[in-house]
């Protein structure tokens, strides 16, 4: 049986660990050729080795999404190694600030919006012309349930994820006539290094899972299947959508 992403070429940012890695693995398992990337060469090498040990078709490249030369190299790698881009998963994000929103220093605010929002926009700008050459594509932006309900401790991060939901809506207007679909993934609490503060300590974990209807934290791999679906032709009439993967955590506006 043909794999649902056979013949497709994908870029996933921040894909050497956590949710990004799980997505890259699933896209490749479903037949895509995947460009794996993150800031550190050692992490890229380790992820590529792990994926290649499953006979998956992947290539690795260092890309700190905040660096223009790295973004250029990411796009060039996909074109030179595989011949184009059909799928773009924008997954990289940072959160350098915890506390009441008005205590957030301007430098931390700028970093959050630069990495989480502006580089997502800049990568779309660079990748869309490549998708146009192939007659269309699928973009999946990783937002968060905290984009719907920015919380008290990581407010600026939450607002940046709300902006990602807005960016998706704005892109859809321009990209739909190009046959490029744009959707968002909104994870709830997922067990990764990024969210460690919320689950490593058993007391924090108990508090964090109180409002999760399934009563547990999610695993990175549980975010991957829906992204592979949205990237595939099975989702050919789905655009401007956001899918929560949150165990039923309260997540709507
Ligand atoms: P994670 O496990 O901490 O993932 C870290 C990955 O990002 C690593 O591969 C890391 O590799 C790379 N990375 C970090 N900064 C980068 C940068 N500036 N440029 C490129 N790569 C970078 O994080 P995660 O939890 O999987 O989060 C992935 C996405 O899901 C983010 O957008 C996050 O906001 C969202 N999300 C997560 C949760 C959650 O509970 N975990 C919930 C909602 C939304 P290097 O160190 O080599 O760069």
Molecular structure report:
α1 (18-29) crosses α9 (224-231), α3 packs parallel to α4 and α4 (106-133) runs parallel beside α6 (155-175). It is globular and about 45 Å long. The protein has one domain: 3-Layer(aba) Sandwich (Rossmann fold). Helices cover 44% and strands 15% of the residues. The protein has a 7-stranded parallel beta sheet with strand order 3-2-1-4-5-6-7, with helices on both faces. It contains 9 helices and 7 strands, in the order βαβαβαβαβααβαααβ. The protein has 253 residues and is an alpha/beta fold. NADP nicotinamide-adenine-dinucleotide phosphate is lined by residues 13-14, 16-20, 38-40, 43, 63-66, 91-94, 115, 142, 144, 187, 189-190, 192-195, 220.
Termini, distance in Å? 41 Å
Q: What is the total tally of β strands?
A: 7
Overall mean pLDDT = 97
Helix content: 40-55%
What pattern of helices and strands is seen along the backbone? EHEHEHEHEHHEHHHE
Unreliable spans: none
Put simply, the count of helices is: 9
Label this structure with key terms.
44% helix; 7 strands; 9 helices; Rossmann fold; seven-stranded parallel sheet
């Amino acid at each position: 049986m043909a794999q649902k992403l056979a013949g497709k070429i994908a870029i996933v940012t921040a894909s050497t660990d956590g949710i990004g890695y799980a997505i890259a693995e699933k896209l490749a398992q479903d037949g895509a050729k995947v460009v794996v990337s993150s800031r550190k060469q050692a992490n890229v090498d380790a992820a590529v080795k792990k994926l290649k040990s499953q006979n998956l078709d992947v290539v690795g490249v260092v890309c700190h999404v905040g660096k223009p030369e790295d973004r250029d190299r990411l796009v060039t790698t996909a074109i030179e190694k595989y011949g184009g881009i059909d799928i773009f998963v924008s997954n990289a994000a940072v959160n350098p600030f915890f506390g009441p929103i008005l205590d957030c220093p301007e430098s931390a605010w700028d970093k959050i919006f630069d990495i989480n929002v502006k580089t997502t926009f800049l990568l779309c700008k660079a990748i869309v012309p490549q998708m146009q050459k192939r007659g269309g594509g699928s973009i999946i932006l990783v937002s968060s349930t905290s984009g719907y309900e920015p919380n008290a401790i990581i407010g600026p991060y939450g607002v940046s994820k709300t902006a990602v939901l807005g960016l998706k809506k704005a892109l859809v207007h321009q990209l739909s006539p190009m046959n490029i679909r744009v959707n968002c993934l909104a994870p709830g609490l997922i067990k990764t290094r990024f969210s460690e503060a919320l689950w490593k300590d058993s007391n924090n974990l108990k508090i964090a899972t109180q409002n999760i209807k399934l009563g547990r934290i999610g695993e990175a791999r549980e975010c991957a299947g829906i992204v592979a679906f949205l990237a595939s032709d099975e989702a050919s009439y789905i655009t401007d959508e956001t899918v929560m993967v949150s165990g039923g955590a309260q997540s709507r506006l």
